[in-house]
Write a structure and sequence with these properties.
The chain has 309 residues and is an alpha/beta fold. It has a domain of 208 residues: UDP-N-acetylmuramoyl-L-alanine:D-glutamate ligase (3-Layer(aba) Sandwich), CATH 3.40.1190.20. The strands form 2 sheets. A 9-stranded mixed sheet has the order 6-5-1-9-10-11-12-13-14, sandwiched between helices. The protein has a 5-stranded mixed sheet with strand order 3-8-7-2-4. The longest helix has 15 residues.
Length: 309
Amino acid sequence: MKILGIGNAIIDVICKVSDDYLLSNNLTKSTMKLVDESEFKKLLSTIKIEETVSGGSVANSIVGLSQLENKVGFIGKISDDKFGQKYEDGLKNEKVDYFYSKKKEKLPTGTCLILITPDSERTMCTFLGTAGNINENDVDIKVIKDSEIIFLEGYLWDEGQPKSAFEKAIQNANKVAMSLSDLFCVERHKPDFLNLVNNNLDVTFANEQEIISLTNAKDFKDVIAFGQKSKKTLVITRGAKGSIAINKNEVVECESKKDLNIVDLTGAGDLFAAGYLHGYINNLSIAESLEKGTEMSSKIIQKIGARLT
């Protein structure tokens, strides 16, 4: 297998809201907030659902890689319930090998409310459900060793069972890529993430905010210096400023696409990672990989949701 994704198995529930809706519910725009089941149900009862999709950050990337005709798989914990079956069917319909045997869990399948404001920014409220209880027994060593590279998400890193699953995957992988996922995520786990980037990851994906926070950089020159010192591949998205990859002394930049009809930024980073990893596993150059990532993210932000087709 080319790439195995391991992440939170979350059903995405996509809705359009006003800025006032975020304010009245004490939500910070463009961030991800973990909520309990009752808060999730309360929010859901006040808005109109546009679409539901088998999601989760890494799962979105894995589907993108499958659509680029790469052989891929995914491990994520679901419950044997309505959303769990929908989740599994959704991945299989996208030709993703799903390496998890669901059973009835105490908590339901995880759900993410994606709130899209008129400026196309997305604010996420996530009820992890059973996805947050992934443990090392859910991670199949043989599947990991049979994969050229595994792709992890920072969202998965949490104390206890998820952390043990994460570490088991890294210890048995041929190569490891990871997305830092979210600014709050970085700030919660900064020492651990810094250690992972410096010592365990072959490829790290981050946006500009996340990498500046992680490295305590004063400006972007400090980020570049950090990337060159780490001796690993650091791939950073910078919004309208494009993207950049740092690999030892090689620094490659790629411009963003212009004049796009942006309707929803959901999945932009996930599909960028899919495009870059497609290049990485198919021996394209860093510049070509950045271009593929840019192409994928440019397409996804011109439609609602995190699926190209």
